[in-house]
Amino acid sequence: MTSRSAKITTERPFYDLHADAYDALITDPVQPWVDAVDDRLRAAGLSSASVLDAGCGTGRHAQALLERGHRVSLLDASPRLLTIASSRCPGSSAHQTDICAPKLRETFEAIMCRGVLNDLVLDEERDAALGSFAALLGDNGLLFLDVREIVETRQRADGQWRRTEAALDGGETLKFASRPLWRADRLVVEERYELVGRDGSSSVHDYVFEMRPWTRDELTARLTAAGFSDIGTVQGVGRRTPDRLFVTARRPV
């Protein structure tokens, strides 16, 4: 299976053409999420856990977890994001693969996955991803997820454009605009990327994609079906908006 998430990584400019601008424009703080994961790992007696960062992006969260003494492996379907993450975390193994069918043989004491599961809009993709996580975790392995919550996400899908920009190396400026729309049970995001050169020339790329937010009941049902227990869902951690959930689960012996 090649998931919708893996397909998006080859198309969305943030994950490919403008991957170098991702950190300059997406500025949610790293520390709250990493502190929450680290606290739970240590409470489980794992002060130096083997962790898979599934959908590692540019590696900011992986780097912070490494600094807390854990051992982190990187996984992403985007080669450009994975290159950035590998540079940031030079001692970590890196795997370019799909979370729905990961080509890994090792197992881990924990897996963290932020945001990626929202891109999986089909039931079979969601079950495949959670099943792959269960297979990659050892006994009592811990799972940490960040997903969009459906009610808050729908309320924020107001059709209004949100704009920001960042100065890039070489004197270029990337102007980024996005607007969220709600259609049926999907969040539709329209994006525009305008790269402005030092000489004033510009190039524009438009991109539209869908996400499918989660309900707490669906999370519990699908995680249970995948073999997880001790499932918890609380308000998102380290997010500037209230439309995320921080999800924890354990793969029992």
Descriptive account of the structure:
A hairpin with a 5-residue loop joins strand 8 and strand 9 (202-211). The chain contains eight helices and eleven strands. The chain has helices spanning 4-9, 22-25, 31-43, 60-67, 79-88, 123-136, 150-156, 216-225, and strands at residues 50-54, 71-76, 94-96, 108-114, 137-148, 162-167, 173-183, 186-196, 202-211, 229-235, 244-251. It is α/β, with parallel strands linked by helices and 253 residues long. Helix 3 packs across helix 4. The mean pLDDT is 95. The protein is 28% helix and 34% strand. It has a seven-stranded mixed sheet, with helices on both faces. It has a four-stranded antiparallel sheet with strand order 6-7-8-9.
Question: Can you tag this structure with a few keywords?
Answer:
253 residues, globular, alpha/beta, 7-stranded mixed β-sheet, 28% helix
| Helix-strand sequence | HHHEHEHEEHEHEEEEHEE
Helix amount: 25-40%
Mean pLDDT: 95
Report Rg. 18 Å
The number of helices is: 8
Question: pLDDT below 50 for ≥5 consecutive residues: which ranges?
Answer: none
Principal-axis shape equals globular
What topology emerges from the helices and strands here?
Elements: H1 4-9, H2 22-25, H3 31-43, E1 50-54, H4 60-67, E2 71-76, H5 79-88, E3 94-96, E4 108-114, H6 123-136, E5 137-148, H7 150-156, E6 162-167, E7 173-183, E8 186-196, E9 202-211, H8 216-225, E10 229-235, E11 244-251
Parallel strand pairs: 1-2, 1-4, 2-3, 4-5
Antiparallel strand pairs: 5-11, 6-7, 7-8, 8-9, 10-11
Helix pairs in contact: 3-4
